[in-house]
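Can anyone check this?
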Amino acid sequence: MKLRRFTLVYLAIIVAIIIVSALVQILADFDITNAGMALIPAMGASMVEGQAFAKAENRMPDTSEMWGFARRASVVILGLILLSAVAFSLALPELQYMVSQPYGALFVAGALLFQAVMSFLLVRFFLASGAKSVLRTRDRQEGRG
């Protein structure tokens, strides 16, 4: 499993979400953004990574491999969300104000930590799901074949 590919797919999904959200806002005057969207990149990138692993190795990753990759991916995700939090707190006056409040920074840190923990669990789950889907499809095609 390749952390570099995971990171690139993760970032590509973030960019796609931003573009789609902006287009819907402009074209339909409707805001589709929500907090749950922050977890979509982890799900998509780990699904892609699980599929790539299964195609390359023709097997499911071991449980220890999946947990190990989830740990490494979570460190990358935490780094990316910390960088984005700093950038947004500098660019958005609302977030800047919130962080300057007595418990504001603690609240933001808690939200970022929650996202990192949820991402860790989602990476593990969708890594297995992606690998299973490739292996099941291959087994079905060989059965017909």
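Reply from J.R.: I decoded it. The mean pLDDT is 93.
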